[in-house]
Amino acid sequence: DGTAKNTDGFDLSRNDGVTITGNKIYNQDDCLAMQSSTNTVFSNNYCCGGHGVSIGSLGGDTVNQSDTVSGLMVSGNTIVNSVNGIRIKTIIGLKGQVSNAKYPNNKLSNVKNAIVIHSDYSEAKGGYTGSPTSDVTIQGVTISGLSGTATNLYDIVTNSNVVSGWTFSGITVSASSKGSCSGQPSSIAC
């Protein structure tokens, strides 16, 4: 199709205290991708044509610095003509941790999936398996003030044993479909 593949806008690994703000990113993969990162701020950026703002794919043999994303703030961004808005994907059979990830006041336009959280990513397959066997914990995820347009509001397939403390509030995305959810914390009604 003539477009470059795997062109992440920003790809963070083993970083602490990185701030990325005020950029315009036109690409075909993640606008922001984090395999490991602590205390990251991603704010007031414009992302167009890719896979949205992503944590992952995340997972390793043990829980350590290379398998952890914590203290993330993603705020005031505009995500346009993308496959995903906000995404977290963890690898089947592996360990790690996502904690204290906050997503306030982001705007979507013409996005396929507004909120994507999967515990079933296969590196070998390069996609989702439908069987959420990842042991990466996903806790303390807050999405608030998400607005705009999407085809599906939710695409959530998680291992219910490793998710907790999620809060979704003030979501005003106009979506053609609510999408689907399985394994999410009981505090999240999809």
UniProtKB/TrEMBL annotation:
Q: What domain of life?
A: Eukaryota
Q: Does the keyword Cell wall biogenesis/degradation apply?
A: yes
UniProt cross-references to InterPro entries, sorted A to Z? Glyco_hydro_28, Glycosyl_hydrlase_28, Para_beta_helix_rpt-2, PbH1, Pectin_lyas_fold, Pectin_lyase_fold/virulence
According to its UniProt entry, the protein's GO biological process terms are: cell wall organization; pectin catabolic process
**What Pfam families is this protein classified in?**
Glyco_hydro_28
Q: Which SMART domains match?
A: PbH1 (SM00710)
Q: Which reaction does it catalyse?
A: (1,4-alpha-D-galacturonosyl)n+m + H2O = (1,4-alpha-D-galacturonosyl)n + (1,4-alpha-D-galacturonosyl)m
The annotated active site, in chain numbering, is 51
Q: Which GO terms describe its molecular function?
A: polygalacturonase activity
Q: Belongs to which family?
A: Belongs to the glycosyl hydrolase 28 family.
Indicate what this protein is called per its UniProt record: endo-polygalacturonase
State the organism of origin. Phytophthora rubi
